[in-house]
């Protein structure tokens, strides 16, 4: 595998889940594969899970790991070509990226949507420069439009906990005080659409996602109706995508918070969230602490999704 940024890059998702469960059963089975290979993780944004789980996955495979937090100690990077660099940015990505590539065998990149320019975000301008100029296999650790390592871990988790061949999975928007990217919901939709689950999306009017990700998923504006009979409730906030509202917070209505009352509408559903989560905005304390909350096993599966991706990349070096 030379690139992992979308669901297409993983190939057959049944094979991918099978491989993930094999690795989970023996996560050190390939501990020699990464000998003398170096992973570079480049963060333009904060992270707890991605940072730790991806590093752990690389260590399981015997790799060396280096981490660069671009905003803490590195030179400020210019991203546009043709700019007269007389401002505060000391270095251009066009040099920085091939230099980074020269120190490693595989690169992971985290670069969130910046909400300054919708086209630049949705063209994945930062991630694509890494793909073009690093000379190395590149994987997304959440880019502007997708978070595939998260969605893969979510899929593994649903496969582990489902009790029906075709579970009903409901992704619900929930309130949050700040503008968050659409990467997690876009990506989750893209991965769910690759399964045969009954997949429903619910959100307030104005929070429609890019149809390139939601595809044929059922959109239900009435959250209570959407939750009826759900087997999995996947909560997430995102800022508006459509038109001039791109990147805006249109609502913080706590009617949409996932509470015990809301969970009663479901078929004793499991609760999922990628974390970090704001309690009593997205989800109530009792729901996230309940026996049906999968947030911790879901986060633990991030090590597994990362290990599958790194293993496949190492095998194709
Ligand atoms: C990020 C987001 O919503 O995309 C990362 C989630 C994995 N969340 C925050 O910035 C709080
Ligand atoms: N879920 C997730 O990617 O978490 P971090 O932002 O902490 O990496």
Number of strands: 12
Strand arrangement within the widest β-sheet reads 1-7-6-2-3
Roughly what percent helix?
A: 25-40%
Strand content: 5-15%
Return the structural class.
alpha/beta
Rg, Cα atoms, Å: 20 Å
User: What is the string of helix and strand elements?
Assistant: EHEHEEEHEHHEHEHEHEHEHEHH
Number of helices: 12
How would you sum up the major sheet? 5 strands, parallel
Tell me what the structure shows.
This protein has 317 residues and is α/β, with parallel strands linked by helices. It has helices at 13-25, 49-60, 93-101, 118-122, 125-133, 148-161, 183-192, 211-214, 223-227, 260-263, 285-288, 295-315, and strands at residues 3-4, 38-43, 64-69, 77-78, 91-92, 106-110, 138-140, 168-173, 198-202, 218-219, 232-236, 270-272. Helix 1 (13-25) packs across helix 12 (295-315) and helix 6 (148-161) packs across helix 12. Helix 8 (211-214) links the parallel strand 9 and strand 10 (218-219). It is built from 12 helices and 12 strands. Helices cover 35% and strands 15% of the residues. The strands form 3 sheets. Strands 1-7-6-2-3 form a 5-stranded parallel β-sheet, sandwiched between helices. Strands 10-9-8-11-12 form a 5-stranded parallel β-sheet. The chain is globular, with a radius of gyration of 20 Å. Phosphoric acid mono(formamide)ester binds next to helix 2.
């Amino acid at each position: 595998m030379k690139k992992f940024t979308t669901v297409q890059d993983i190939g057959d998702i049944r094979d991918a889940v099978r491989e993930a469960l094999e690795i989970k059963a023996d996560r050190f089975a390939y501990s020699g594969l990464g000998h003398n290979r170096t992973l570079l993780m480049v963060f333009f944004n904060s992270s707890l899970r991605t940072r730790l789980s991806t590093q752990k996955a690389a260590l399981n495979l015997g790799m060396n790991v280096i981490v660069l937090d671009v905003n803490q100690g590195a030179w400020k990077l210019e991203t546009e070509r043709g700019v007269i660099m007389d401002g505060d940015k000391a270095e251009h990505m066009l040099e920085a990226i091939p230099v980074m590539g020269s120190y490693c065998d595989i690169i992971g990149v985290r670069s969130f949507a910046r909400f300054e320019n919708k086209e630049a975000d949705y063209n994945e301008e930062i991630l694509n420069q890494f793909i073009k100029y690093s000379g190395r296999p590149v994987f997304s650790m959440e880019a502007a439009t997708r978070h595939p390592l998260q969605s893969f871990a979510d899929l593994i988790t649903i496969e582990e906990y489902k009790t029906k061949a075709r579970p009903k999975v409901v992704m619900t928007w929930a309130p949050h005080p700040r503008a968050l990217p659409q990467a997690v919901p876009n990506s989750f939709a893209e991965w769910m659409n690759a399964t045969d689950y009954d997949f429903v999306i619910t959100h307030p009017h104005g929070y429609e996602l890019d149809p390139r990700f939601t595809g044929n998923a059922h959109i239900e504006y009435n959250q209570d109706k959407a939750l009826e009979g759900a087997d999995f409730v996947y909560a997430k906030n995102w800022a508006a995508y459509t038109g001039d509202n791109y990147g805006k917070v249109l609502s913080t209505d706590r009617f949409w918070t996932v509470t015990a009352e809301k969970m009663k509408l479901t078929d004793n559903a499991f609760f999922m969230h990628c974390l970090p989560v704001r309690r009593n905005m997205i989800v109530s304390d009792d729901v996230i602490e309940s026996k049906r909350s999968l947030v911790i096993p879901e986060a633990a599966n991030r090590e597994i999704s990362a290990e599958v991706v790194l293993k496949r990349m190492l095998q194709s070096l």
